[in-house]
């Protein structure tokens, strides 16, 4: 029989929730200051579209190796908070070094180093929050939505600052935000379920995960869908100026876009309870494809801003439920590793391909063609989601968990 939580316990849980909310707020504030406006820095040092694509594509290659490595270390030694602390500090300090370089080779080198440490931040923070949410029967989206709030605020504020003082300000904002996040990291719990101890070898664990059909199909879907979402964060700044916008307008756009994610992440929990994870993910993916195809038709900046909530529907729903899908469809003993693999495929391989192709498309065709490509990629990603929902493995989740953990 479970114990009824006392008033002190409820108060403690509230404090821990606030710490998680602040942790996500400042982590994503740093990301929101960096990603949406980094192309303004590239533009200021006169990099070509192909060079921008190469930087944005090569760096995720590092995360493909680094994320599973970080995940395995965390699963093996149960030191998630220690690793997250290390990677937040190093990521922030490396970010500052961008203010000292202005050539393609040095920017590429710094971006690779930054990716090595930054690639651990999202999988580990997600894992900590998922463990906290599951134990207290909360929805992960209730915590993750604070990341959307931080990202939105950062994009807007940093956009104004960049237009006034230049792109170097985004690196200072990034560093300060990550260092502030550390203050709240100390207060979040590192809870490990009894079944989550490291019971298999590292590489056997990866092999077992990739033998789960639902997990493998979801990796394929996220390769296409998350890859385009992350690539949009890089290219939207140039796209928005291409259709007549300003740098400050880019910040306003991201404020509206990312700001819309928070309420939809909250709503995602309601949809999941009513319709299930699979339909919620499908719904988000369809809206995402529609968004990219619409962007490729060169709408006015007014229209792009007016229909800002389309990001909340597509990105908000998908990000709020993706990590939960991974957790519910993989063994408890490999939770961090599973999330790290998922992140390395979507945010690593998928983003690498989308950025590399986008850079070539920009120099060879146009910014509008980049978004046509994003639409096609997302439409392809819908196919494995349909198979997950209606294919032969839709009822075999529990069986796969049992078989894999034996």
UniProtKB/TrEMBL annotation:
Q: What is its main location?
A: membrane
Q: Which residues cross the membrane?
A: 20-39, 51-70, 82-102, 108-133, 145-163, 169-188, 209-231, 243-264, 276-295, 301-326, 338-361, 367-388
Q: Keywords, A to Z?
A: Cell membrane, Membrane, Transmembrane, Transmembrane helix, Transport
One Pfam family from the record: MFS_1_like
| Keyword Transferase attached | no
Q: Which InterPro entries match?
A: MFS_assoc_dom (IPR024989), MFS_dom (IPR020846), MFS_trans_sf (IPR036259)
Q: Name one GO molecular function term.
A: cytidine transmembrane transporter activity
**Which species is this UniProt entry from?**
Brevibacillus reuszeri
Q: Major facilitator superfamily (MFS) profile domain: from which residue to which, for each copy?
A: 16-393
The subcellular location is:
Cell membrane
GO cellular component terms?
plasma membrane
Q: What is the protein's membrane topology class?
A: Multi-pass membrane protein
The protein's name: MFS transporter
